[in-house]
């Protein structure tokens, strides 16, 4: 077993990150492609296995063309939105139809400019497969999903049929999402090669469905448990005598009463916001760790090299939560340390067997 490692530090990455932000702001965004190159080169150079690192060979000039096209598209969209709304809708539809092409080009470019031990990666997937996966499947899924909802609406007076309809919608969503993730993952892995060696994966939709079902169950249980805890905190901390006081205050000083109510609701809103974020992170951490472990265990490089992911749900969740809190407390300045913590945990829990 050989383990990956990340040798970068939060302070080193902070120096690169803060300079990139300052230069991007000073140049009104023009420096962004070079900033992205500097970020990627640092992260790749510090991603290592057996003291050999990855390399990122793209240049700012190469990324500038795509960046200017995206920026121009955004500017044209905003102009059309103000002066010709229908035109902005047509532009969005056009953009949706070129997304598969953009994904395909991005995969080819990003892998072609990535190397390990002076050997380049390559992506040989076709544009046809990209359009099937990233356009045809989503459109067909949307049509099927809309048809189910339409049929349910026709029987909205029947509680039983409505219940069956909700179950059908959830079932369809789980199956369709799992199938999409399967074909997308196969496309991205099976057409990737390292030098003359090819990656292969053998993953199945039923396992993805099982992972998603467990994720939904964990989300529901987390929401229920969190609601009980949050409700208990509110119940034991709220002074119910204040309700009577506020009702009387409305008569004598309405402005003060409204201010007090607004303040109270602000605290409640903040608490609910953090509650939703934490429940979301629980679901995300479980889904990512389980899905990653399954994909890695079933992926080979020329049938000789096997990959394993040892990321665990609770440690990964702890890193995500503490990163979120650090970024909030430092008003974003802790982002480089958060990025490095995730990179270190992810790579140090990734191994390969020759």
Topology:
Layout: E1 2-6, H1 10-26, H2 32-45, E2 47-49, E3 52-56, H3 60-83, H4 85-112, E4 114-116, E5 119-123, H5 127-154, H6 159-190, E6 192-194, E7 197-201, H7 205-237, H8 241-252, H9 254-297, E8 299-301, E9 305-309, H10 313-329, H11 335-348, E10 350-353
Antiparallel strand pairs: 1-2, 1-10, 2-3, 3-4, 4-5, 5-6, 6-7, 7-8, 8-9, 9-10
Helix pairs in contact: 1-2, 1-11, 2-3, 3-4, 4-5, 5-6, 6-7, 7-9, 8-9, 9-10, 10-11
What's this, in brief?
The chain is of the alpha+beta class and 354 residues long. The chain is built from eleven helices and ten strands. It has helices at 10-26, 32-45, 60-83, 85-112, 127-154, 159-190, 205-237, 241-252, 254-297, 313-329, 335-348; strands at residues 2-6, 47-49, 52-56, 114-116, 119-123, 192-194, 197-201, 299-301, 305-309, 350-353.
Describe, in plain words, how this protein is organized in 3D.
With 354 residues, the chain is of the alpha+beta class. It contains 11 helices and 10 strands. A 10-stranded antiparallel barrel has the order 1-2-3-4-5-6-7-8-9-10, surrounded by 5 helices. Helix 1 runs antiparallel to helix 2. The protein is globular. The model has no long low-confidence stretch (mean pLDDT 87).
